[in-house]
Design goal:
This protein is of the alpha/beta class and 321 residues long. The chain contains 10 helices and 9 strands. Strand 4, helix 5 (140-158) and strand 5 form a beta-alpha-beta unit.
Length: 321
């Protein structure tokens, strides 16, 4: 029991002992009655007054009003509670932010606050975060995502949830084909001994730059070459699959080193390559059923009525995104 719950029990016991001499109200008798309101706007804690009705011989809503009036006398700028309101048959309490800071922040700063998780068992939740792409750089945006996701996992665990931390890594798609295209045709560098995943990200950047700067027939040629590489990857062409597996591992090793440095772990890692073909079949089947539409050879969702244009799911060359 924290200082706020203890204060609610102590004050309520004092007031009840003042207005009811038929019995002795002990602080411990309220321990299990204090609860959290369903709406935060109602306050931080609530105390139902139903169990007082038999002894006081008054309806619970009337008891709530009477108790709220008398409890007001205990409030001061230094007390843990700053507001006590009667709402139907409940007393709603609002805690002092200043006292909350005095109680919580010292343990937070010294690292003790999150060491003992809640003894309340809540449902299982999955928090998916990080989701980097292989063959691309792990940039500051990914770091922000990792920090937010890992913080949520720790907070949920602390509050009694059975948390499954999950990562969904994008290890297939057009960005892979662009990186391997540049690596196979234009790269003249030897892969470094360390941080090869980061180096692949640089090759991807060079690939995008080269493609953007190309014009006319040269651009068409580049796009066709990249499309062919992606088609071969999706067809499990042995030569390209071996290159993909080798370079994919470079990225994954970099990711693991980053996660270890950040002290972040996952209960399960999903890979896009595990569901890529299944996703393609779902799109094709969806088009047959009229759920998705064709547009210039591509399959997607028509969101024109929502002013969002055409959302592509499968490209005109048959490749996934």
């Amino acid at each position: 029991m924290n200082i706020f719950e203890q204060t609610i029990c102590d004050w309520t016991a004092k007031v009840l002992n003042n207005i009811d001499d038929s019995r002795t109200w002990d602080t411990s008798s309220f321990n299990e009655l204090v609860e959290k309101p369903p709406n935060p706007d109602m306050g931080d804690y609530a105390l139902p007054c139903f169990s007082f009705a038999k002894s006081l011989r008054r309806p619970p809503f009337q008891i709530a009003v009477e108790l709220a009036e008398q409890l007001q006398s205990y409030i001061s700028p230094e007390t843990p509670l700053i507001s006590i309101q009667a709402k139907d048959s409940y007393l709603n309490f609002t805690v002092s932010a200043a006292v909350m800071a005095e109680v919580v922040l010292p343990d937070v700063f010294c690292g003790k606050y999150f060491t003992e998780p809640s003894n309340i068992s809540r449902e299982r939740v999955m928090i998916e975060f990080s989701q980097p792409n292989t063959h691309k750089g792990f940039h500051v945006g990914h770091m922000r995502n990792v920090a937010l996701g890992d913080s949520l996992c720790r907070i949920f665990c602390y509050n009694g949830y059975d948390v499954v931390g999950a990562n969904y890594i994008g290890d297939v798609g057009a960005h892979i084909a662009k990186c391997l295209w540049f690596h196979s045709n234009y790269n003249t560098e030897t892969p470094p001994e360390k941080f090869r995943g980061e180096w692949l990200g640089e090759l991807y950047t060079h690939a995008v730059k080269k493609l953007d700067e190309a014009e006319g027939q040269e651009k068409i040629k580049f796009q066709k070459e990249i499309s062919q590489i992606q088609q071969k990857l999706e067809a499990k062409d042995e030569q390209f699959i071996q290159e993909w597996e080798k370079t994919r591992e470079w990225s994954l090793l970099d990711f693991q080193e980053i996660y270890e440095w950040l002290d972040v772990s996952f209960d399960h890692i999903f890979y896009e390559s595990e569901v890529d073909e299944e996703g393609r079949q779902i799109v094709i089947e969806g088009e047959k059923k009229g759920i998705f539409q064709y547009s210039e050879g591509a399959i997607g969702i028509d969101l024109e009525e929502e002013e969002l244009g055409f959302f592509m799911l499968l490209k005109s060359d048959g490749n996934t995104l």
